[in-house]
């Protein structure tokens, strides 16, 4: 019995689902972080620019020099200065904000306004440098503590949300894998139970809400159940065959025993009685032997592949009819055979099928009544029919004549075990052909063996 120690598929599915959800969540959060930081810095820059505009308006005629020097204040604008283009121009003593070549170029008008991050007295600041009338540059700076704090807080918050998201993703993955694999688990359990008990009567029961879904799993379940139906049917048929066979063997065996016991006291019998008993014994032995042989043939399933060949049906029918004429001298067999019809099959088996039909026809029709064998090609199929003029098959017997051991009430007076047609149908099926029985018009029975063309 196969047992899976660890439901590896479930683990994998849970992992993949969780990872996918977690990745998406973390991606979204990272993007949110970037956007928030960008937006906060942009707002801050805008404020700086506005302040620079106000200062430029208020200090129309000021020359180079410091305007506000309280750079450590958190309030803005606390820090601003005007820088000339020439490094050696007067009024530059005590400038508080760093001046670079870029600042000079802005003052000279060769470079546009720009933002930069600077550090002043150990404080992170953002500085805006913009040209001012009269060949100067205006620098406005403010501490970025608030922005940094905002960004940090946003980061912390998003990290917390991300952590929760990953946990949620893991839980989700687990739930998804569990629910989506539940039918598979059930399937496995059923298969294991069948393997353990060897009882194919088990079925997978899907709860109604799952059965309504038409997905791969429900399809697999249906297929599995269908397979179990077939298996159960096959097992039941096998059991029936054995039960039927042993039942059918009991009667002839009892008769055999009676005759054997009779012959054991042979000295007390007259020669005529002895003759009769041993004659009956021989007949019964032949019957039992025939029955056992038939059973063995029936139990065989496939046609032996190496014996398959192209069979001329007309020739085969001729041979079988000739043989039947020998067996049943009182019956008139007539043939009407379309020439040159070949099928692929095992000739001996097909002959067996046909002789079973011919034997029945002769056995069940009155002496002298004709039995007609026809081989005709119709569009799409080849039909071989055996028709007799006997009593025919009554409507209530018709569905059962191909069953093993089935014999109509009238037939029980005649020799036979009811295996002939069962075997015939089995041979037909093994050859991909269809064997059916019908009531012929104007009385009699007609058996039709139909090969697809
Ligand atoms: N040509 C026929 N006319 C009337 N009834 C038939 C005919 N062929 C078959 N049947 C009915 O179908 C039953 C089953 O036929 P089948 O050939 O399987 O068994 P059987 O001939 O009785 O025994 P067996 O063939 O094993 O010696 C027969 O017992 C009979 O009732
Ligand atoms: Mg028969």
Overview of the molecule:
The chain has helices at residues 8-58, 101-108, 145-197, 208-212, 216-264, 271-299, 313-327, 347-364, 420-430, and strands spanning 65-69, 79-84, 114-120, 123-132, 136-143, 309-312, 332-337, 342-345, 370-378, 381-387, 434-439, 445-452. It is an alpha+beta fold and 453 residues long. Among the domains are: 58-143; 216-299, Helix Hairpins; 306-452, Histidine kinase-like ATPase, C-terminal domain (Heat Shock Protein 90, 2-Layer Sandwich). A hairpin with a 3-residue loop joins strand 4 and strand 5 (136-143). Helix 1 (8-58) runs antiparallel to helix 3, helix 5 packs antiparallel against helix 6 (271-299) and helix 7 (313-327) packs across helix 8 (347-364). The longest helix is centred in the middle third of the chain and has 53 residues, at 145-197. Adenosine-5'-triphosphate (ATP) binds next to helix 8 and helix 9.
Give the N-terminus to C-terminus distance in angstroms. Answer: 46 Å
Bound compounds, each kind once, are: adenosine-5'-triphosphate, magnesium ion
Largest sheet: 5 strands, antiparallel
CATH topology of the domain at 306-452: Heat Shock Protein 90
Q: Mean pLDDT across all residues, rounded?
A: 88
Helix content: 40-55%
What shape does the CA trace take?
rod-shaped
* Sequence stretches where pLDDT stays below 50 over 5 or more residues: none
Cα-atom radius of gyration: 51 Å
Topology:
Layout: H1 8-58, E1 65-69, E2 79-84, H2 101-108, E3 114-120, E4 123-132, E5 136-143, H3 145-197, H4 208-212, H5 216-264, H6 271-299, E6 309-312, H7 313-327, E7 332-337, E8 342-345, H8 347-364, E9 370-378, E10 381-387, H9 420-430, E11 434-439, E12 445-452
Parallel strand pairs: 7-9
Antiparallel strand pairs: 1-2, 2-5, 3-4, 4-5, 6-8, 9-10, 10-12, 11-12
Helix pairs in contact: 1-3, 5-6, 7-8, 8-9
This protein binds adenosine-5'-triphosphate and magnesium ion.
């Amino acid at each position: 019995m196969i047992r899976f120690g660890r439901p590896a598929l479930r683990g994998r599915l849970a992992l993949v689902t969780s990872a996918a959800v977690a990745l998406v969540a973390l991606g979204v959060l990272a993007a949110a972080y970037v956007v928030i930081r960008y937006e906060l810095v942009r707002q801050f820059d805008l404020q700086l620019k506005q302040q620079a505009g106000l200062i430029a308006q208020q200090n129309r005629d000021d020359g180079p020099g410091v305007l506000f020097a309280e750079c450590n204040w958190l309030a803005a604008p606390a820090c601003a200065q005007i820088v000339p283009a020439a490094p050696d121009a007067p009024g530059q003593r005590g400038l508080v904000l760093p001046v670079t070549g870029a600042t000079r170029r802005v003052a000279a008008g060769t470079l546009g306004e720009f933002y930069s991050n600077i550090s002043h007295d150990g404080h992170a600041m953002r500085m805006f440098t913009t040209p001012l009338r009269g060949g100067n540059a205006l620098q406005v700076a403010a501490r970025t503590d608030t922005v940094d704090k905002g960004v940090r807080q946003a980061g912390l918050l998003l990290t917390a949300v991300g952590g929760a998201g990953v946990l949620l993703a893991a839980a989700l993955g687990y739930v998804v894998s569990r629910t989506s694999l539940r039918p598979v688990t059930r399937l496995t359990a059923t298969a294991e139970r069948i393997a353990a008990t060897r009882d194919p009567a088990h079925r997978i029961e899907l709860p109604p809400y799952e059965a309504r879904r038409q997905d791969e799993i429900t399809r697999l379940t249906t297929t599995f159940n269908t397979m179990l139906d077939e298996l159960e049917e096959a097992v039941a048929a096998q059991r029936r065959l054995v039960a039927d066979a042993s039942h059918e063997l009991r009667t002839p065996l009892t008769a055999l025993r009676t005759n054997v016991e009779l012959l054991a006291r042979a000295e007390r019998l007259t020669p005529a009685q002895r003759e009769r008993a041993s004659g009956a014994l021989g007949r019964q032995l032949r019957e039992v032997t025939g029955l056992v042989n038939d059973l063995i043939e029936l139990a065989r399933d496939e046609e032996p592949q190496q014996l398959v060949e192209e069979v001329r049906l007309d020739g085969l029918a001729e041979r079988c009819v000739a043989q039947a004429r020998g067996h049943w001298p009182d019956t008139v067999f007539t043939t009407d055979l379309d020439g040159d019809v070949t099928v692929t099959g095992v000739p001996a088996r097909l002959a067996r099928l046909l002789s079973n039909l011919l034997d029945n026809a002769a056995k069940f029709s009155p002496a002298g009544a004709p039995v007609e064998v026809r081989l005709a090609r119709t569009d799409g199929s080849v039909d071989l029919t055996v028709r007799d003029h006997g009593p025919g098959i009554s409507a209530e017997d018709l569905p059962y004549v191909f069953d093993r051991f089935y014999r109509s009430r009238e037939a029980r007076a005649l020799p036979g075990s009811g295996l002939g047609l069962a075997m015939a149908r089995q041979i037909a099926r093994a050859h991909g052909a269809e064997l059916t029985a019908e009531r012929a018009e104007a009385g009699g029975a007609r058996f039709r063996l139909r090969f697809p063309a």
